[in-house]
Amino acid sequence: MSETPDVETPDVEATDTELPFSTEDPYATEEPVYAAGPEGEIDQTAAEKGWETDVYDPPSALVTAVCTELVSEPEERGQSPAQWLVEGMKMEGDDKHILLLGIPKLCQKWTSAVKAAAAGKYERWFGDGTYVVTSKKLDGEQTIPPGTYQAVGKMDDCYWERTSESGDIIDNNFATSARKITVTISSSDGQFTAERCATWKPVK
User: Fold this and answer.
1) Domain range list for the chain
2) What is the pTM assigned to this prediction?
């Protein structure tokens, strides 16, 4: 019976693992590349400032989405554009800085709205619902400041009422068909309720 010759096992550690070619990507760069145009400018500035969004990547995508939503969302919710930005929590954290930078670049018509929202000084509109009459913000309550408001648009079966704090009706009306309704809410009123009406906007 013949003996198996000893086979020398190569020393793995001593094996030369250097490849005869470079594994580095010749096109790799440490500098990020941004798209041309205003979107790229937004993304580059956001990166330089360290601004990030929770949902959108890149940051310019947040601006694009908000620009699109501003066309119809505020009116459908019975809110002014600036009010929608604030109460919809669009102006929180880094999102606020990104929108202040990006909206004038991508949808300039909403520049005044985003600036008013950032400053916290904006006009509030009101849709259907029951509101506590007060100029203060109340946690968990919809509020409306005293003043004169007007609803304009095609309204069928619009009902509104002003009530005291105890719920007694001070004034009300049911309009089967209307195009314009004006109501003055007193500081002594308790609540204001509207159903199936257009958006109530302050009369300037």
Assistant:
1) 38-119, 129-202
2) 0.74
